[in-house]
Write a structure and sequence with these properties.
By secondary structure, the chain is α/β, with parallel strands linked by helices. It is built from 13 helices and 14 strands. A hairpin with a 2-residue loop joins β10 and β11. It is globular. Bound molecules: pyridoxal-5'-phosphate.
Length: 368
């Protein structure tokens, strides 16, 4: 089976360095928020070109901490998309605030800035654009709308480590940028992990307090916080992989290019990458009117294609009827019927890429 993503292949690629990094943490014997985390925070901030980086427990927690650091909670509204990982919306609800879900652009499925005017109310406090599939949302329009209305911008960069917009890496545009190191992400740990980045020293300080019980120093809580820490093993592994992130993202772009060439003039709609963006192809997402049959056809040919995401957040049992106006989420709802993610990860070989392309090209016309 050709897997859609394959974190183990990446471990195999960097095994020596990863094993050494893990061994070194075990020998030092300091397991949480130590030197590895501190150094990784500095290296990750330098990589992005941002002043502060604060490690935390997951991508969900990065968003939760960011919202809390901005003082957002019960009675407030936060605008984001329904076409995203449920984590984006779950993080807003964790603070007590209400998610207001808007539609996406039909071409690249990121937040449609034209929807913001209608979603704005006197309670709106922030916008969370999601850099979906590895490509930046329309940061220019979103940020100018936010500035005009005094809103915070919290970037969900969980699928876009290293992606750029107008030449700068995502994460440094908004008030805060949030990253996940879930194993399948472009920068993936061997467990859970996350990071918030910011240029604002006060927000950075508040994030550091919030992630550990509000402690300014040990056992003295200055504000009510909780526990969302990054551990030393994850940080040590992530430091190794960060050194290869640009190279690995370039490999993903080469695979995407091969797919786009091999599948042009074919029966599927190809992903669009906008000129101002350097796409990092966390996912390579095609669209088809016969998506379910195509997925099944690929499965029979040992090609593992997945759906991101089959059910928009506003239609999931936990949120249905509570969030968003379905009439205003037409693009989201049709995308959920059509999207299909093809196998993509840096170690994917040329033979496998050809197999995937061929399998799609021979998708029988009879079922279409
Ligand atoms: C993965 C992901 C998250 C959540 O990250 P976790 O580390 O799994 O909590 C949030 N938003 C998006 C867009 C993601 O892809």
């Amino acid at each position: 089976m050709i897997l859609c993503c394959n974190p183990q292949a990446q471990y195999n690629a960097y095994q020596k360095e990863i094993d050494a990094a893990i061994g070194s943490v075990l020998r030092v014997g300091w397991y949480i928020l130590g030197q590895e985390v501190k150094t990784f925070e500095e290296e990750f901030a330098a990589f992005l070109g941002v002043k502060y980086a604060v490690g935390c427990g997951s991508g969900t927690e990065a968003l939760h901490l960011s919202l809390a650091a901005c003082g957002i909670g019960t009675g407030d509204e936060v605008i984001t998309v329904s076409h995203t990982a449920v984590a984006t919306v779950a993080a807003i609800e964790l603070t007590g605030a209400t998610p207001v879900l808007v539609d996406v652009r039909p071409d690249c499925l990121t937040l449609d800035p034209n929807t913001l005017g209608r979603a704005l109310t006197s309670r709106t406090k922030a916008i969370i654009p999601v850099h979906l599939y590895g490509q930046a949302a329309d940061l220019n329009s979103i940020q100018s709308f936010a500035r005009q209305h005094g809103l915070r911008v919290i970037e969900d960069c969980c699928q876009a480590h290293g992606a750029t917009y107008s030449g700068r890496r995502v994460g440094c545009f908004g008030d805060l940028g949030c990253f996940s190191f879930y194993p399948t992400k472009n920068l993936g740990a061997v467990g859970d992990g996350g990071m918030v980045v910011t240029n604002d020293p006060e927000l950075a300080e508040r994030l550091r307090l919030l992630r550990e019980y509000g402690w300014a120093k040990r056992y003295v809580s200055h504000i009510p916080g909780w526990n969302s820490r990054l551990d030393e093993l994850q940080a040590a592994v992530l430091r190794v992989k960060l050194r290869y992130l640009d190279i690995d993202n370039e490999k993903r772009r080469q695979i995407a290019k091969a797919y786009s060439e091999g599948l042009k003039d074919c029966h599927v709609r190809l992903p669009v990458s906008r000129p101002e963006n350097l796409h990092v192809y966390h996912l390579y997402v095609i669209r088809s009117q016969e998506r379910d049959q195509l997925q099944e056809h690929l499965r029979k040919k040992d090609v593992g294609a997945l759906i991101h995401y089959p059910v928009p957040v506003h239609q999931q049992p936990a949120y249905k009827g509570r969030l968003g106006n379905p009439d205003a989420l037409q693009v989201t709802e049709s995308a959920a019927q059509e999207v299909l993610s093809l196998p993509i990860y840096p170690e994917l070989g040329e033979t496998e890429i050809r197999t995937v392309i061929e399998a799609i090209r021979v998708f029988p016309a009879t079922t279409r």
